[in-house]
Amino acid sequence: MVLFPSFFNGLARTMSSSSSSLKKTKSLERDAAAAGGGGKEAAEELTKDAKRNELILSSSGIVKSTKSNNFASVCSRRGQKGVNQDCLVVWEEFGCQEDMTFCGVFDGHGPWGHVVAKKVRESVPPSLLCNWQRTLQSSLNVEMELGGLSNQQHRFDIWKESYLETYAAIDQQLKQSHPKIDTFFSGTTALTIVKQRNHLVIANVGDSRAVLATISDNGALSAVQLTVDFKPNLPEEAERIKSCRGRVFCLQDEPGVYRVWRQSGKTPGLAISRAFGDYCLKEFGLISVPEVTQLSITSRDQFMILASDGVWDVVSNQEAVRIVAAAATAVGDGGGREKCARRLVEYASRAWKRKRGGVAMDDMSAICLFFHEVEPSPGGDGAESEKKKCLD
């Protein structure tokens, strides 16, 4: 695994055919030095460059890497509550590292939730790159003492520290730097992953969910949940909220839906225990600290699904894996990996109508990230096809 080279060197490699591009790279390096190694301007330039090269997708569609077997299918559909407050992003060759992919799903809530979600989506990747690069540089001596690049735990510690710094800074910036955005009663979840070759780092705030599809010992494709749905009634979450003078309870007309409330018990109540924004509840136990975990991807692991809670409210983990696997191996107009995210969202939409017909449908978004090539199979178990286009 190539761990140490900075994303500036990665940018230089990808642009080496142009002398003007090389000059630009040196300029970015000077920006980073002037910023004390943070490289904010450089990270922003990397983002712009990735968009120009179509390495970043932030709407329904596909992203296929030319440098690896990664393939991402993406779909976001507006529900029945107004503007779509979900947004997502896939960035191949993240930070100009050929073996690195970044994915994220953000589910906004509140009057300005769609604005907050997009702001966090725009802020996390470049900020994470800055913090990752700085942490890499500062840990160089430690890496050498631990035997170089082979210590996976140390690699994970670098990512974890970078994530914690990134999320804390962005949450603070939302409060201080955006007076025109109401983040007092609005916020967003954030589920993001960084895949570097076979090393996967997952950071989660809120109740969006990541699920892995892996081949079990008996040869069947099984679903493994990789994240925790951070609901207020989870014991550790409830303990923290109560220790901060917050309250956790359900309304009479929402049995089973636990919310965080201020001490007075007055609105608003929030059905998640971790979120960006929502400053009306931050002093009552709501936090934006991500749970950061890691996974080593093996040949048994086929793909992963990142989706907002609108999907998981009506579709089980195993159902989702079955639908995506069927779509990926089907042939014809209704199949193929390109259609997987759309097929999952369409399935969830129909499931919502069956199970929650009297409740306004939530926004639904999904990213299906494949790790290996998939062989088409005419047999597929054929999840239903529906020729409706996803709405951004």
Task: Provide the descriptors you would attach to this structure in a database record.
manganese; Phosphatase 2c, domain 1; alpha+beta; 10 helices; protein-serine/threonine phosphatase; globular; disordered N terminus; 16 strands; six-stranded antiparallel beta sheet; magnesium; single chain; PPM-type_phosphatase-like_dom; 392 residues; eight-stranded antiparallel beta sheet
Number of helices: 10
Mean pLDDT: 84
Secondary-structure arrangement, i.e. CATH architecture of the domain at 56-229 and 291-370:
4-Layer Sandwich
Low-confidence segments:
1-8, 10-38, 377-392
Explain what you see.
One of its GO terms (molecular function) is metal ion binding. One of its GO terms (biological process) is response to water deprivation. This is protein-serine/threonine phosphatase. Keywords: Hydrolase, Magnesium, Manganese, Metal-binding, Protein phosphatase. It is a single chain. The chain is of the alpha+beta class. It has a domain at 56-229 and 291-370: Phosphatase 2c, domain 1. It contains ten helices and 16 strands. Helix 1 (7-14) runs antiparallel to helix 2 (19-34), helix 4 (113-138) crosses helix 6 (152-176) and helix 9 packs across helix 10. The longest helix is centred in the N-terminal third of the chain and has 26 residues, at 113-138.
Structural topology:
Layout: H1 7-14, H2 19-34, H3 40-52, E1 56-57, E2 61-64, E3 71-77, E4 86-92, E5 100-109, H4 113-138, H5 140-145, H6 152-176, E6 187-188, E7 190-196, E8 199-205, E9 209-215, E10 221-225, H7 235-243, E11 247-249, E12 259-261, E13 276-277, E14 291-296, E15 301-307, H8 309-312, H9 317-329, H10 340-355, E16 364-370
